[in-house]
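Progress against Task 2.4 (sequence-to-structure conversion) is shown through the following example record, which the project officer requested during the mid-term review.
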Amino acid sequence: MTRIKNQWRPRIINIMSDGSQVEDLTGYTIPKDSGYYNAIRRINKEV
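Structure tokens generated for the chain above:
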């Protein structure tokens, strides 16, 4: 039996300092030295 392998796509949920959850960070400023910034940059580079 042959299985079709689906590409793994991570789901990113951002938890803000007040505890709220945000899926889209449009309009928020992320510092360039942030680990999150580097991770998103690597993900976008791969796509």
